[in-house]
Design brief:
Blueprint lengths: L1 E4 L4 H12 L5 E4 L7 H11 L27 H10 L8 E3 L5 E3 L3 H8 L2
Family: Belongs to the ArsC family.
Organism: Nonomuraea endophytica
EC number: 1.20.4.1
């Protein structure tokens, strides 16, 4: 299992604490220091069952331009490219489970769902 985190994020720290309390085996990826590639973002999106705009933090300064972009298949690559170029825009934490699925671990229930897999 891998968890993409920003150490400054309270939701990320909570997810790590829960994983530690449950003695889960995981690796940490500080995705701001080690940004995912476009291919990795595509893979995570497939595992999440979401579109790039679904995992975009639109409140970030770097997202101002994106909020006017169409959310449709024709613009999907554009969104993915923006996430790869500005990883701060990626919702966090993202946990990829060993069984192939992934969750955005912003709630305790979401984090626990990967522990049950």
């Amino acid at each position: 299992m891998e968890i993409w985190i920003n150490p400054a994020c309270s939701k990320c720290r909570s997810a790590i604490s829960l994983l530690d309390a449950e003695q889960a085996d995981y690796t940490v990826r500080r995705y701001l220091d080690d940004p995912p590639t476009e291919a990795e973002i595509r893979e995570v999106l497939a595992r999440l069952g979401l579109e790039p705009w679904d995992i975009t933090r639109t409140g970030e300064d770097a997202a101002k331009e994106l909020t006017s972009w169409p959310r449709d298949p024709a613009n999907r690559d554009r969104w993915i490219r923006a996430l790869a170029e500005h990883p701060i825009l990626i919702q966090r934490p993202i946990i990829t489970a060993d069984d192939g699925h992934a969750v955005i671990g912003r709630t305790e229930e979401a984090v626990r769902s990967v522990l049950r897999s």
